Amino acid sequence: MPIKTLDLESLGEKEGNKYEKIVVMSKRARQIAAQEKLELDEKLKYFEGFEDEDEFTFNEEQERISKAFEQLPHATQRSVNEMLDGKVTYRYPNEDR
């Protein structure tokens, strides 16, 4: 699934710096990817420890789960969509620490 191009000027139309928003989208994409990886690992962990008796059935199920995760939109595209929809908020850490 190809990623759509994004007009960077449209990011600066609202308040804030467009380059800061790019960094925020990048960090959000990493969060999404890490969360998906944890979910996938958790689902595939179920298949650990089974004997080889019914290996074919388990391999099919593992493949089905993996393909379902591959069909999800790319984490970068989802973070861009979240930013454009105003679903992402960010703040600066306190500087007086």
Keywords:
97 residues, mainly alpha, 4 helices, 0% strand, elongated
Your description of this structure?
With about 100 residues, the protein is mainly α. It is built from four helices and no strands. Helix 2 (about 20-45) packs antiparallel against helix 3 (about 55-70). The protein is elongated and about 60 Å long. The N and C termini lie far apart (about 45 Å).
- Approximate shape: elongated
The largest β sheet comes out as:
none
Beginning-to-end CA distance, first to last residue: 44 Å
* Total helical elements: 4
Along the chain, the helix and strand elements come as HHHH
- Estimated share of beta-strand residues: under 5%
Instruction: Count every beta strand, where a strand is a DSSP E run of 2 or more residues.
Output: 0
Level of helix content? 55-70%
Structural class, please?
A: mainly alpha
Mean pLDDT: 81
From the alpha carbons, calculate the radius of gyration and give it in angstroms.
19 Å
Question: Are there runs of 5+ residues with pLDDT below 50, and where?
Answer: none
Break the fold down into its secondary structure elements and pairings.
Elements: H1 8-11, H2 18-45, H3 55-70, H4 75-84
Quickly describe the structure.
The chain is mainly α.
